[in-house]
Amino acid sequence: MRLSLATLGVLAMTPAAAPADFPAPDKLPTVAEFPDVLTTRDRTKITTKKEWEEKRRPELKELFQHYMYGHFPAKPDKFTAKVLFEDAKAFDGKGTLREVEITFGPPEWPKMYLLIAVPNGKTPAACFVGPNFHGNHVVTTHEKVRVPDPKLWVPGSGPGVAKGTNKATEAGRGKQADTWPLQQIVEAGYAVATFYSGDLQPDRPNVREGMRATLPILKGNPDPAETATIMWWAWGCHRAVDFLVTDKSIDANRLAVVGHSRLGKTALLAGAFDDRIAVVIPHQSGCGGAGPSRSKNPKAETVKRITTAFPHWFCANFSQFGDDTTRLPFDQHALVAICAPRPVLFTNAEDDQWANPPGQFDVLRAAAPAYKLYGDAAPVAKAIPEQGKLSAERLGYFVRAGKHSMTPDDWKVYIEFGNKWFK
Ligand code: GTR
Description:
25% helix, Rossmann fold, globular, 9 strands, 9-stranded mixed beta sheet
């Protein structure tokens, strides 16, 4: 069946036009260090919270859309949720587990499946929310949790995915329960909600599928700021939030977004573009997330490398900066600054230099001026804290020993940070 653009909801999704005066990447001025977060494009120095919110913050949001992540899609007009199952005696009776099917557009649009665990007797609870890599069924052994439809593409590296199939299967159930340790989180008094990132946008280039299939194809004249994959995943986090704020067992004022690696990049972007998210925790997110584009760490991933290996994560404009990141009119500190005054925590591992832990600390330091406008005189530590010790300032930082992974010990750190800021 051929679907017309209108059936696909294209009209609803057509983004606002990019500001006309944004120069092509190679026409931008060179700025060797991080551009000052408080100086606007027209060289005005921001000194008040009001000026920040009215002028610089919206400008930065436009710049990040145009040159890096692509247009921020509109909120869908339609939104319905259906509870697929609920187990009020999950986690040895300590919590309730449910899965919710969320429909937010015309029937052709992808649906999203949100898995929610809530601590019994401790509601409304603060909630960690974020995308997962391989499907909800891999984060729990619970037999009712849905396996993604075999028609939906999943990464070949996922548990229970037979070679060459890219199909999720029953064999993956519970195999990555350590990455989103639901019971541990519930026992700490928190709720947790996760969804498969590929529900919204499968993680592969060149295929017009998922939410990307709802955009118009501009033949011969592609939009260099077309909404890219990380933006779609962030948009998915916002749709999860749309549901969570209606759920009486969740405290809508205490939501923390969490994600690992490419999904950590997603968590930071999601936090920057949605003020309903109170705490932002990108874990080992590196280049394109918490890591600087103007990197001084020779072991870290570069813009050139990431835009070559993963062209679909960012809009086409971003790849233009691969050979000269000094032309970027922002660096990642500005994405953190957009989150001000909300707490942001960067978590890392020593052996994961690809994600650039020291560079991420520079990013936090450079975001501080925006936080100071809100009255926090010392929002960030002066130096990188010692390994294994959480620096729980408003701009928090943590580096542990070990590798690139998301573990129950990392969750202890997110929870410790939550315990401080959700008080
Ligand atoms: C790597 C990529 C990183 C990071 C990681 C992941 O291959 O270079 O930027 O996102 O994948 O998502 O695990």
